[in-house]
Amino acid sequence: MNEVKKPRRSMLYYYGVIILVMVLFNFVLLPIVAQRQIQEVDYGTFMDMTEDGDIGKVEVQEEENQIVFTNKEEDTVYKTGMMPDPDLTQRLHDSGAEFSGEIMKAESPVQSFLLSWILPLIIFYALGQYLMKKFMQKAGGNNAMSFGMGKSNAKVYVKSSQGIRFADVAGEDEAKESLTEIVDYLHNPGKYQEIGASMPKGILLVGPPGTGKTMLAKAVAGEANVPFFSISGSEFVEMFVGMGASKVRDLFKQAKEKAPCIVFIDEIDAIGKKRDGQIGGNDEREQTLNQLLTEMDGFEGNNGVIILAATNRPESLDPALTRPGRFDRRVPVELPDLKGREEILRVHAKKIKVAEDVDFEKIARMASGASGAELANIINEAALRAVRDGRAFANQADLEESIEVVIAGYQKKNAILTDKEKWTVSYHEIGHALVAARQTHSAPVQKITIIPRTSGALGYTMQVEEGNHYLLTQKELEDKIATYTGGRAAEEIVFGSRSTGAFNDIEQATKLARAMITRYGMSEEFDMVAMETVNNQYLGGDTSMVCSAETQTEIDRHVVELVKKQHEKAATILLENREKLDELAHYLYEKETITGEEFMAILNQ
Ligand code: ADP
Predict the structure, then answer these.
(1) Which of 211, 342, 371 to mutate for ligand 1's pocket (most ligand atoms within 8 Å of CB)?
(2) Which of 175-211 are b and which e, b meaning 16 or more Cβ less than 10 Å from the residue's Cβ?
(3) Which of 147, 370, 469, 504 is most buried by its number of CB atoms within 10 A?
(4) For 235-247, b where at least 16 C-beta lie within 10 A, e where not — what string?
(5) 352-369 pLDDT, tens digit each
(6) By alpha-carbon position, which residue is closest to atom 27 of ligand 1?
(7) Is 429 labeled as catalytic in the residue annotation?
(8) Higher per-residue pLDDT: 21 or 104
(9) What is the distance in A from the centroid of ligand 1 to the CA of 452?
(10) What is the pTM of this model?
(11) Quick check: 402 and 541 in contact, CB under 8 A?
């Protein structure tokens, strides 16, 4: 990052000091110094010295009504007031004094002004500059320090967009298409101005974290070859009131100077939250937001400054921010689909050494639901694993293992399960896998393992969809719930007891069942009525209830019914396949990790 501009600090403080020192200099110091130089004596002393012939030089300054003279040695200057004294000249002449006009050659007004006012000013200005430089070096961008100077310290960075181009952002074709227009505009604004079209001033990139929003913004700057200003929304909101607004002003001032350019505001929700007018609201944030709105209104559409902003909470943004004329274009940057995941994996795999036979499509299928950032992480984990094992490049196994690391954490090599526990886990996992395999609408089993992971999972069954899956039918959802309950069902059938191992399954099953009823309209009773709304679709998808307490009770009853039914279904499937259940569980117990193919082979024998 190259810092373009150091914060400009107020000179007021320094000017104050300079003026104060100058006043002291002129009104206190100078007279003292002057006094030491010229002794004022009475006329009598002057007459005595004349009589004693103790006068060296003498000058009569009629305008100032004074006589300035020196002693014989000419090392002291005296002055005295003038008196009517007609033969003074003669007496001085007799005493041998030298008439001179140069003892106290009066300075010209210009000279004295220069000396007493301008010179100190220059000295102190130079001193001030020097001190300020030192001070700023010491403060080194410390916000609290610079605030002490009462200044805006907007730190605005321009990055060369690090050469990122659209080609580096894999997948996200729709987003790239929307942004290509911006690039074209920055290349050739005339084309748009001719027809009278103006570019949107602001473009909002919305999507879950790690999907490449920042990367896309950089790529726009990279493609258009324009400067890229980047600041995070949270940087505006600081400890001190009024800083945010002045930072916004600074940012826009710089951007306008550098136009055409891209201004990228990350996490815009930090300042752009809805102003709800609650008492005790965040004044600072609102001021910052207001300033942002004002600035956006203030510049014309065609001045070449394009503002890109990213957020993963678009629903929380103030409507004033998203209205036409401000951030009026919204570009969704969603989680990548199968093809997108494969492309992202390939882009990142270029940065490391990988074996030639790596099946990226399979890895992409296994990493369903992963974001771009997670995929980049998976590739890196694979490279790290290869290094750990002393290999020169990463292979398929490294990649598969690193997916599991990202999903479930590292293998816990020294976790010791009792034999009973190991059997329980084996049956539990086979329970899931068997129920999944015996249902028509479940994704195929990819892998089953009972090696404990650092996430706390004692084992897991990985199912991988064949291709992209955008819609889920009611039957598929029910089968999913049944699969979740399969683990516990197996424990109940085989051991006649329940363990805590199923807690995660219980959570997932309940969540799905609830969503089916409250959001997907998949129950007879509530039909297509929404009972729940999603609060933030990109961040975990928390929901809040929008129904009466009575209805909630009803919903709870239905959720229990739904899960119970699937649990029973799972138990029936397992009872029907009891022999296979035992056989597979023994096999897993021995092997600890088995592949989907091994599993299917035994099942289909
Ligand atoms: P966001 O701003 O959406 O949170 P970033 O743009 O910061 O996400 O992405 C974080 C990292 O994830 C990037 O540095 C990049 O390595 C990787 N990444 C995310 N999406 C993609 C993509 N579509 N193509 C390639 N890499 C990606």
Answers:
(1) 211
(2) bbebbeebbebbeebeebeeeeeebbbbbbbbbbebb
(3) 370
(4) bbbbeeebbbbbb
(5) 998 888 899 988 888 888
(6) 372
(7) yes
(8) 21
(9) 30
(10) 0.68
(11) no
